[in-house]
Amino acid sequence: MRFIIYGFSGSGKTTRLKELELQNNQTDYQFVDLDEYILSLEPSYKRLGNLIEDKGWSWFRNRELQVIMELLMHENIYIALGGGSVSESLVSSLKKIEFNGIYLNVDFETCWMRIKNDTNRPLVKLGLDQCLAIYNERVKMFKQLERL
User: Fold this and answer.
1) How far is the CA of 88 from the CAs of 41, 53, 91, 133, in angstroms?
2) Residue 130 contacts by C-beta under 8 Å, 6 or more apart in sequence?
3) Which CATH superfamily is domain 2-146 in?
4) Per residue in 15-61, pLDDT tens?
5) pLDDT per residue as tens digits for the range 60-109
6) Helix or strand or coil: residue 79?
7) To which H or E segment does residue 77 belong?
8) Is the sign of the CA dihedral 103, 125, 63, 20 positive or negative?
9) Strands 30-33 and 77-80, how do they pair?
10) How many whole angstroms separate alpha carbon 71 and alpha carbon 57?
């Protein structure tokens, strides 16, 4: 089985992944935090924000999709996606793959309270209003993925 954990930034994807890993530590499952994994592929970078600033959002989103699809070739895997990983391209690609989605449907106010002081998150630099607009757009994508 393949599982993807998704939701907005600050919804608790990494926390949920770690909880699942603790609950299933005697199994053959892999547990992958997508952002950490991508960062591990770029060893000259210590922070994801720096990687995105240097290489650009377009490069990052393309790399992100490529890595997700590579990881989903494995059986018995849990992947915590990044908050912006869910896109039209990903939804389209996932239509061809058997997986289970775990949607962390958390309201914007809770997410914002969790992330607002984290200057390592590029999204936070955009400010509250812009972040809310992005949240509303991403929720539409999450709902599409939820229907697969």
Assistant:
1) 24, 23, 5, 18
2) none
3) P-loop containing nucleotide triphosphate hydrolases (3.40.50.300)
4) 999 999 999 877 789 999 999 999 999 999 998 888 999 999 999 99
5) 999 999 999 999 999 999 999 999 999 999 999 999 899 999 999 999 99
6) strand
7) strand 77-80
8) negative
9) parallel
10) 21
